Amino acid sequence: MTLRRRVGMAAGVAVGIAILLVGVVSYLVVRGQLVGQVDNQLRAEANLIDARAGLSRQFPAPPASEGGPAPYGWVVLEGGTVYLRRGNIPLSPTSRMMAVAAGESAPFISDLRIGGSHLRVLVFSFPVRLGGQSVAVVLARPLNSIDHVLGTLRLILLVLCAGGIGLAIVLGRLAAKRVLAPLADVAATAQHIGETEDLTLRIRVHADDEVGQLAMRFNAMLERLEFSREQLDESVRAQRQLVADASHELRTPVTSLRTNIELLLAHPDLSEDQRRRMLADVVEQTEELTGLVGDLIELARGDLPADSADEVRLDQVVADSVARAERNFPQVRFETRLTPVVVAGAAERLGRAVNNLLDNAARHSPPPGPVEVEVGPEGVRVRDHGPGVAEDDLPYVFDRFYRGASSRGKQGTGLGLAIVRQVAEQHGGSVEVANLPDGGALFTLRLPTLAGEGSGSGWLDDPGLAGAPEALAQDDEQDREGRDHDREQRRAAQRSAE
């Protein structure tokens, strides 16, 4: 049974019960009023008889304004003999009537059926004795007319009750259809989504009631599902694109590596110089392949959320990355300005992103041109003094496997800056690039910092580190001086070797 039908039936039953209660109460009230009038007329005549204090062959009759005389009356002796009778209906005295005559029972009013007549009788004792016996007077008025009125009233109430229930069912179903229309919309929407997987459909909110709130919550759930579906589709698309791009990019170094190895195997009579050059190519291609595979693994990891977010000293991460870059690019001079900054994230991935920025800047800086590195509340800024990024390449430098015109022919996989963007987005930040008027490109890695938030467990909240920024700045200055000294020693050793 549908909800609409159940609501209509419930409304009909509720209205039917209400009408039935009203009908029963109305019937009892009307019957009480009609029977009460008869009882008052009987009592008025009894009072008149009692006031006369005497009996004759005729009962004293009240005036017509008080209902006139009772059509039927009897005088009953305590032995059961009917002494006097009014009307043509014979009476068989009951034991209760004889008890009233003997003074053993109180007067009473009740219904009595004699033959086909329905009578209302009043029995009371009278203070005289006839033949040595006490007597009781019985007055009776017919109730047939009242029974006819009450029968008609019962029929009318029954018809009204049945009609009211039917009307209530019809109106209840109509009202239920209107009230439950939003629920029908919800069901239709859910069915449509289940059949078509179309999450763009929304439910129209009819009113700000419970059903309207249900529709709004359903729409909010659909929006979240649609957003999750879009994210899932985008993730699947990105993964497929990554696999396709990786397959294409891996083909070239693998083919070249295989060719060189096959040549070495096929020509054992190569000269030592040729063999050395080919082995050097094999080593270079292996390193390129290793770097490409490592970048692909990092990109695959970057699509996943970090297992846990720790408080990370961003300036220390950058300092470690600068020390690594100085070892890998001794011909490049790195200038740093590191302000103590704390961020929430994974130190390993942040370090990988900073390494990629430094490697990119070092490859595009003409030696001994400096690479300027700055850490502050806005994040990490890396500037090189190379030719900058071509205007046509600016929108695509952070795409996977994209290599601008200035990068073609240089070592690299085209994934380093893509990793930087993924790490930034994973940590709730962003990365951007801009060309500077006086030459070079500026890369800015923006990350939300924890400075001033008081995490409760980090170095900012340690009482023993009061004044930590100044002390850390002094430590950073000493570290820079030490790195400058090491860099000069490496350059001197390189000049001596040359």
Summary?
With 498 residues, the protein is α+β, with helices and mostly antiparallel strands. It has 10 helices and 12 strands. It has 2 domains: 3-165, no CATH class; 306-497, Histidine kinase-like ATPase, C-terminal domain (Heat Shock Protein 90), CATH 3.30.565.
What would your notes on this structure say?
The protein is α+β, with helices and mostly antiparallel strands. It folds into two domains: 3-165, no CATH class; 306-497, Histidine kinase-like ATPase, C-terminal domain (Heat Shock Protein 90, 2-Layer Sandwich). The protein has ten helices and twelve strands. A five-stranded antiparallel β-sheet has the order 2-1-5-4-3, with helices on both faces. β3 (108-114) and β4 (117-130) form a beta hairpin. α5 packs antiparallel against α6 (272-302), α6 packs parallel to α9 and α8 packs antiparallel against α9 (416-426). The longest helix is centred in the middle third of the chain and has 57 residues, at 210-266. The model is unreliable at 452-476 and 493-498 (pLDDT under 50).
Assigned CATH architecture of the largest domain? 2-Layer Sandwich
What's the mean pLDDT score? 78
Q: Which strand-content bin applies to the residues? A: 15-25%
The CATH top-level class label of the largest domain: Alpha Beta
Largest sheet: 5 strands, antiparallel
